[in-house]
Amino acid sequence: MARMNKSLPSAITCLVLGVAISITLIYSLLILLYSWMVEDNIFNRLVAAEADFIEQSYQQSGTLPQPRSGFVTLHRNWQDMPQELIDARKRKQDRIEFDLNDGSTVHIHVLQLEGIDYVLMAKVDDFEVSKEYLPNLLGWLALLALAGAALVSIIAFVIGRRLTRPIKKLADQVSCLPTESNGATFANNYPDNEIRVLANAVETSFFNLQDALQREINFTRDVSHEIRTPISILKNLLDSRSHSQQLTPSDYQQAQRAIFELEKVTHTLLALARNESKQKSELDMTQLVENTLLEHFELNNSEKGQKLSLQLSLQEGIHLHANRNLTQILLNNIISNIVQYATGSDVEIRLTSTSISFINHTTTPVPVQPEAAGVKAQLSTGIGQGLNLIERICAVNHWQMETHSSPTVPLNSEHSSSKETTSAFKLTVHFNPT
């Protein structure tokens, strides 16, 4: 697996830790601001209470009493007030708290008695607790923030690992996917939430990519083999007739046969290589088989094809859900193989709702696993891809191909004076394999 600069659990832990520390700092700052506001309001209310007392006493007795609190002093106008306080007051008329040059803090309250301004000034620096306890408070807040951050880090790490475990598992599994698909799925192993949706998307993309790659590999391999024989026939034909400049009927038939093989192979391989081969529709299989037999070139135009006697047993009303193009190509290829390798004249074709089978006789020994790629009969001029292509077409349609060769039996050929041995070769395509 590729090395990551930062894992998801670490990212989640850092994110949650950053949020927790930010909230802690903001909350601590709000607490400090609140404590300062409470303390200032207490001093303001004490000075206001002294002002009410002085005003009430003056109204009752006509004399100006002294403040009751020792830290509060009464001043007539602003004459004997500190100059820095007067200057600050001029800059902001509604200001009531001032920090003097000697480090003291005062709160003022202005009251009017018979049109004369009097100023109550309270020196509160000896009673302020916020400044005194601020260093200890900051220490405790920092310790509390560190403890909270440590606890949040542990919780975030545990939750982050738990939340990202499916994603990490998916990342590990995707990075270790084999280069060739073995058909195993992994999306259903994840919880039924967004992770499974992601896993399904990755799984589908991987299988589609592997399927496209496999089609490309098969196409390259098949093209390099299958078109070699008909091209060789055409080249030899042209080389042998380059001087005479005239084709005999036999030459014309060979060329026609080679061109037909090229067309058939090209059509088959391109159909298998395209992704459109997976598109399916409703097919009338009975009608498709009949049309294929009527339109097949070799069956109706070659000497061997015209000698064959077809025994048809086609059940009516067989409808299948499959790819029409591939099914047409499958039937054409099977019939072409029968025309090429059948020895006897009788060919039996049976169509039922579950399968279609082709039975013919041949004197050529049938190899073991004839559907395997590269396996061919002794007298075959090809390279052993014919039945393999048919099997792959069946796989695309989710069908199953089965071949069977019965024990050899003696056969008296009509065109030979000696007895030959033949075997009955049966190819069956199951539409609904179990």
Automatic annotation (TrEMBL):
**Catalytic class of the enzyme:** transferase
What keywords are annotated for this sequence in UniProt? Kinase, Membrane, Phosphoprotein, Transferase, Transmembrane, Transmembrane helix
Q: Which InterPro entries match?
A: HATPase_C_sf, His_kinase_dom, HisK_dim/P_dom, HisK_dim/P_sf, TCS_sensor_his_kinase
Q: Which reaction does it catalyse?
A: ATP + protein L-histidine = ADP + protein N-phospho-L-histidine
Question: For this UniProt entry, which segments traverse the membrane?
Answer: 12-37, 137-159
* Enzyme Commission code(s) on record: 2.7.13.3
Asked if Transcription regulation is a keyword of the record, the answer is no
**Histidine kinase domain location:** 222-393
Alphabetically, the GO molecular function entries are: phosphorelay sensor kinase activity
PANTHER family, alphabetically?
A: SENSOR HISTIDINE KINASE TRCS, SENSOR HISTIDINE KINASE YKOH
UniProt-recorded name of the protein: histidine kinase
